[in-house]
Amino acid sequence: MTNAPALTVRTISREEHLAAITDRPSVSFLQTPAWAQVKKEWKAESVGWFDGDTIVGAGLVLYRQAPRLRRYLAYLPEGPAIDWEAAAKAGDLRRWLDPLVSHVKEYGAFGLRMGPTVVTRVWENATLKAALADEQIKRLGDVPADETTEIGNSLARQLRDAGWRPPPDSEGFAAGQPRHVFQLPLHGKSEDDVLRGFNQLWRRNVKKATKSGVVVTQGSGADLTAFHELYVETAHRDNFTPRPLGYFQGMWEAMQAESPDRIRLYLAHHEGDLVAATTMTRVGTHAWYSYGASSNAKREVRASNAVQWQMISDALADGCDVYDMRGITDTLDESDPHAGLIRFKLGTGGRAVEYLGEWDLPISGLLYKAFDLYMKRRS
Predict the structure, then answer these.
(1) Domain boundaries 8-115+358-378, corresponding CATH code
(2) pLDDT value for 159
(3) Separation CA 122–CA 69 (nearest Å)
(4) In CATH, what is the architecture of 121-148+180-355?
(5) How distant, in Å, are the alpha carbons of 13, 36, 107, 361 from that of 30?
(6) What GO molecular-function term can you cite, just one (predicted)?
(7) Looking at 14-53, which runs of residues are DSSP E strands?
(8) Would strands 351-355 and 54-65 be described as parallel, antiparallel, or unpaired?
(9) Rounded to whole angstroms, how far apart are CA atoms 151 and 86?
C-alpha cells in the first residue's frame, strides 16, 4: 500500500467528463456522457476522481431505482475510466473505490456494480482453433490462456479483500455486459496484413461479395428505419428480442451530437436490395461492432463479410488499435449454437479476451439481496 494522497469523487459536468476521457486511448462508449441519454430509464450522473483540484479519472454512473423505494443500484457499465494499472501495481485500489462508494451511498445507493475493461486472459487465434477442433474441450475457461495478466490477478484479489462479489460463471450471455469479447488487433497493421490474417473462407467471401456487386455505404439517421426492419428480421431468425426503433434513434442522436464519429451506420446493398446493415461505435483508438442485421434472402452474396471488412478498413484508416466484435460466450461446444458465433469471428484472425467482469458491492446487504431476488424473478 502506498502513502499517496487521498482522492475525492464528486459530480462533474458533461464537458468535464468529455475532457477527462478525450486523451485516453480506450474508454468504453458505455462510459461516455452520451450513453446517459441513451439509457433514459436510469438516472445518470457523471463523476470525477480528483487528486486535489486535478481530475484523474471519470465515470458514468447509472442509478436503477428499487421498487417503491427511493434507493438505487449504482452501475458503471464497462467502467469507470481510472488508472487501473497504477492501482494494481500499488495495491491501493481502495484509494480509488472507497470515495466512489461514499459518493453513491450519499445518493441513496444500496449496492454498487461496475465492470472494469481490464484484461485478465487472452487466447490467440491458433489456440482457439485447436480448442474448437478438440471434442473434449467444452468451455473457453478449460483452455490454457496464451496470456494471463498480473494486473487482472492483482485487482481481483484486491476487490475480494474489499468485500466485492465476483461475476458469476456463465456459459451463455448473462445479464449486463459481456465478460468475454472477440478483438482484432490493428496496431501497426495495413489492410493487406489484416486480409492475410483472415482465414481462407473469410477472404473468399469478401472477394465473392465484391464480384457479386455488393456495395457498402455509410448511412444517416434517415436510414435507421430500413436498418431496423432488417434487424427485426434477424431477431426473428436468430430467436432474440429486438430493441425498438426508438432505441436506435435515441442512440444515434445522442452519440452523433457528442461526436460525429462516435457512431456510424453501414448499409450493404445488392442490386438495390438492403441485404446487411451494421452499426460501429468509436472512442479514441477503439472501435466496436455494436449491432448487426442481415436479410434471409441473398445470403450467397456474403454481404455480412463485406460490411465487416468495410468497418475494419475504416477503423484502420481512422488509426484505431483495436476492432472489437463484442461479446462471445464461454462455450466451445460445437453442439451449442453460440459456438457458431465464435467460429464466425475467429475467421478474422482475431483473439478472445476475458475482462475482469462485473463486480458487485452490497452497501446495504438486506436491500441488495431483495433487489437481486426481484431482478431474478423478472428475468
Answers:
(1) 3.40.630.30
(2) 98
(3) 42
(4) 3-Layer(aba) Sandwich (3.40)
(5) 17, 8, 21, 20
(6) aminoacyltransferase activity
(7) 43-51
(8) unpaired
(9) 9
d(CA 206, CA 212): 10
Q: Which strands form 359-362's sheet, in the order they lie side by side?
A: 8-11, 43-51, 54-65, 72-76, 109-114, 359-362
- For the chain, count helices (H), then strands (E): 13, 15
Q: Answer whether residue 317 shows pLDDT above 70.
A: yes
By C-alpha distance, which of 273, 293, 174 is closest to 227? 293
Q: What is the CA radius of gyration of the chain?
A: 21
Q: What whole-number percentage of the chain has pLDDT above 70?
A: 97
* Shared fold status for 8-115+358-378 and 121-148+180-355: yes
Residue pLDDT, tens place only, 272-293: 999 999 999 999 999 999 999 9
What value does the mean pLDDT of the chain take? 94
Q: Which long-range contacts (CB under 8 A, 24 or more apart) does 298-302 make?
A: 298/270, 298/273, 300/212, 301/208, 301/209, 301/212, 301/213, 301/214, 301/270, 301/275, 302/205, 302/206, 302/208, 302/209, 302/212, 302/214
Whether the CA torsion 327, 281, 310, 147 is positive or negative: it is negative
pLDDT confidence band for 379 (50 / 70 / 90)? low
Distance CA 74, CA 43 (A): 9
Under DSSP, is residue 61 helix (H, G, I), strand (E, B) or coil? strand
Domain-wise residue ranges, the chain:
8-115+358-378, 121-148+180-355
Task: State the pLDDT at residue 170.
Answer: 55
The residue type found at 218 is Q
- Eight-class DSSP state of 197: H
Q: Cell numbers for 215, please give them.
A: 456495395
Residue-wise over 83-104: b if at least 16 C-beta within 10 A, else e?
Answer: ebebbbeeebbebbbebbbebb
Side-chain-side CA neighbours of 262 within 13 Å: the count stands at 21
Residue matched to cell numbers 453460440: 338
Beta-carbon neighbour count of residue 185 at 10 Å? 15
Phi and psi at residue 184, in whole multiples of 5°? -110, 110
